[in-house]
Design goal:
The chain is of the alpha+beta class and 454 residues long. The protein is 32% helix and 24% strand. It has 19 helices and 19 strands. The chain has helices at residues 8-11, 91-95, 173-179, 184-192, 196-205, 208-215, 220-229, 232-241, 244-253, 256-265, 268-277, 285-288, 302-309, 316-319, 342-347, 371-381, 401-408, 413-416, 429-434, and strands at residues 5-7, 15-17, 23-35, 40-50, 54-59, 63-67, 70-73, 88-90, 99-102, 110-121, 127-136, 152-156, 160-161, 294-296, 321-325, 336-341, 365-366, 385-389, 395-400. The strands form three sheets. Strands 1, 2, 3, 4, 5, 6, 7, 8, 9, 10, 11, 12 and 13 form a 13-stranded mixed beta sheet that branches. A three-stranded mixed beta sheet has the order 14-15-16. Strands 17-18-19 form a three-stranded mixed beta sheet.
């Protein structure tokens, strides 16, 4: 190693290269393991983000250099998705912002917050946590928007109590800052690597809208765990911020009593669509649809239609199609007249009315349409979303392509998506004909190497 000591914050985001100079990934975290017998915290490896947003583990024994703003590895990477093991901790995700007590000989102990972690390479080439950069806890409350108060100093790790992952309180400020630029699906991936307790702490600190987006991307077990740990009023607010179909799916995963309590705590106008969605079969068009598509009247101008689909909070799949109906324009609407595609609106004069460019050839779905019928219709019409109507052709909602994918992929696709292509053998024939299938390919040398025993 060319650097005997480094602070972890300086590692986060560094490029990782193989011996030939080819970039293989980016450092996302550092993994440490605490020894209660020796009172040492050993650095065992790094978490890298490699192409495809996959996070993998590389042991410190595979790191040959940390120098000049880059990390060099031997080139051998285990491409299995990183999974945190017992007694391991992620420094950036779990130790930064941790509240600790600093006790050193001859000095009064004081409370502090961890700002950074310094790691050193020993003579035997092992890496240990040796220094902690802390900020003394201020007795004065910190106002929103103001910088932290309190003296900062670097102390020996052995003098810090509460640094071990199972001890002490931990804030989430720096971790949340690292999530700012990530998409909800990437944040969901990162949360799965944390302990259940840490996930709950992060969920408590997230804004309702951000947490709602992330819950839509989490596997069933993790999102149920988070929602059940929230206060009832907060959980109700988060459900209201979710897409109706995703919120209904989540309520269906909770036990009946908990779901009933949460529905009762929601605003009546927000809860009513979810109650309706819960009455439909899970794999039917009614069970998959969202009740908040873009609905306009025939006399609406194209300029107004473009303004509606331009809203930042609108899901991209819903923004691609406008549903034109007779009044009323809230579900259940008046009679469905047809659909207008975003691309068509972009080609027409802004002052023209939506009704003049309606595509009435799209056959809508019944609420009881099966998953197979939905996927075939989507493939036949090359549509991103399809309308769902009742027997009187009143619009009830829309099924989008992401809803379909959620239902045809395996239940654990979020956990397994980095390991291998999903098994689509049970998917409807129309969909499997339309999707490319990933073929088996030989693995690169060294890719089957397992994590070092420790």
């Amino acid at each position: 190693m060319s650097v005997p000591r480094v602070f972890v914050s300086h590692l986060i985001g560094l490029g990782v290269f193989d011996p030939l100079g080819d970039r293989v990934g980016q450092v996302r975290d550092v993994v440490v393991q605490h020894s209660t017998q020796r009172h040492l915290t050993r650095v065992i490896g790094m978490v890298l983000e490699v192409p495809g947003r996959r996070r993998v583990f590389v042991p410190m024994t595979r790191i040959t250099s940390i120098d000049a703003g880059q990390v060099i590895t031997t080139g051998l990477l285990n491409m299995r998705r990183f999974e945190r093991r017992p007694r391991e901790a992620l420094v950036h995700s779990e130790l930064f912002d941790r509240r600790v007590t600093v006790r050193s000989d001859g000095d009064e102990p004081f409370e502090a917050t961890v700002e950074d972690i310094g790691i050193n390479q020993q003579r035997n080439r092992d890496w240990h946590v040796t220094k902690v950069f802390v900020r003394k806890t201020s007795e004065r409350p910190r106002r929103l928007g103001l910088r932290r108060r309190g003296e900062t100093l670097v102390v020996d790790a052995i003098d810090v109590q509460g640094l071990h992952v199972t001890q002490g309180d931990q804030g989430a400020e720096q971790l949340l800052e690292s999530f700012e630029e990530l998409k909800p699906a990437d944040v969901a991936d990162a949360l799965q690597e944390l302990t259940a307790k840490r996930r709950r702490e992060v969920a408590d600190a997230l804004p309702d809208e951000k947490l709602a987006d992330i819950l839509e991307e989490l596997p069933e077990e993790e999102r149920v765990e988070i929602v059940e740990a929230l206060a009832t009023d907060r959980a109700a607010d988060v459900l209201e911020a979710m897409q109706p179909d995703d919120a209904a799916d989540l309520l269906g995963e909770l036990d009946g009593a908990t779901a009933a309590v949460l529905l009762g705590a929601m605003e009546p106008e927000e809860a009513e669509p979810l109650r309706t969605l819960l009455t439909y079969g899970e794999d039917s068009a009614g069970g998959m649809m969202t009740t908040e598509p873009v609905i306009l009247g025939a006399d609406t101008s194209i300029a107004e239609g473009l303004a509606m689909v331009r809203r930042a909070e609108l899901h991209p799949a819903l923004a691609a199609t406008v549903f034109v109906c007779r009044p009323p324009l809230e579900v259940p609407t008046g009679k469905l007249l047809g659909v207008v595609h975003l691309q068509r609106m972009l080609r027409e004069p802004p002052h023209e009315s939506i009704g003049a460019i309606v595509d009435s050839d799209i056959e809508p779905l019944d609420v009881d349409s099966t998953l197979g019928e939905v996927t075939r219709s989507m493939a036949n019409y090359n549509m991103i979303s399809l309308p769902v109507v009742d027997e009187d052709r009143r619009l009830l909602g829309a099924v989008t392509v992401d809803d379909v994918l959620d239902h045809i992929l395996p239940d654990d696709w979020r956990e397994e998506r980095d390991e291998e292509a999903p098994d689509l053998s049970e998917a409807p024939e129309a969909l499997t004909d339309a999707l490319p299938v990933q073929r088996d390919a030989p693995l690169p040398p060294g890719s089957e190497e397992v994590r070092d025993a420790r």
